[in-house]
Specification:
Number of strands: 6
Order of helices and strands: HHEHHEEEEHEHH
Helix content: 40-55%
Radius of gyration: 25 Å
Largest sheet: 3 strands, antiparallel
Structural class: alpha+beta
Strand order of the largest sheet: 1-3-2
Distance between the termini: 53 Å
Number of helices: 7
Low-confidence stretches: 1-9
């Protein structure tokens, strides 16, 4: 299986790579497959099959089945990466793209590319008997700064509403509880 490192943009075009692959596999070379290839080579980021179907030109109708089968071919011949994320397969252009990893926000589900050679260095040191490593893909899940700010605002709003519904005595005891928690942290 070819990886993006094996494919030099100067050597072959995506059309050349797909044509050669389909010839070797004795597959039909249909205009639909080339149209899907063209759309995927223009796309940015990480897209589902449904999103790719929506990107297709209005005058070019393809079925969902054709989209899925062609995307599988494009992954197999090294022109696309596929990522399994929470039950959905997302596709990303691999042709001419340097290998990278991903940050994924669990709040908004946005995905960012992460380029960090230390991950490859660490993976290269992992012993894999009877297994040849081809590439390493890492997903780091967390909460982005925008979602963190939204959560902070939501917490403040909930706290404000909570305080508005508390009696004076409950507010006083809540403050004492906060001060005790801070003191306990300090003693740790």
């Amino acid at each position: 299986m070819k990886t993006s490192k094996d494919i030099s943009p100067d050597a072959d075009t995506p059309h050349d790579i797909l044509t050669r692959f389909m010839t070797e596999q004795q597959m039909r070379k249909t205009p639909e497959r080339y149209a899907i290839l063209d759309v995927t080579m223009q796309m940015e980021g990480h897209n589902s099959a449904d999103q790719i179907l929506e990107m297709m030109p209005n005058n070019f109708h393809v079925s969902k089945g054709t989209i899925y089968s062609t995307l599988a071919i494009l992954v197999e011949c090294g022109l696309l990466f596929n990522h399994q994320m929470e039950g959905v397969t997302l596709y990303e252009k691999a042709y001419g793209i340097e290998h990278h990893h991903h940050y994924i926000c669990t709040g908004c589900r946005k995905i960012w590319d992460l380029r960090d050679t230390s991950i490859e260095q660490a993976a290269s040191k992992v012993r894999t008997p009877k297994f040849k490593k081809v590439r390493c893909s890492t997903y780091i899940y967390g909460i982005c700064n925008i979602c963190q700010a939204k959560l902070a605002r939501m917490r403040k709003k909930i706290e404000k509403e909570k305080l508005a519904n508390m009696t004076r005595e409950e507010v006083r005891f809540a403050k004492i509880g906060d001060e005790l928690a801070k003191a306990a942290e300090w003693f740790k």
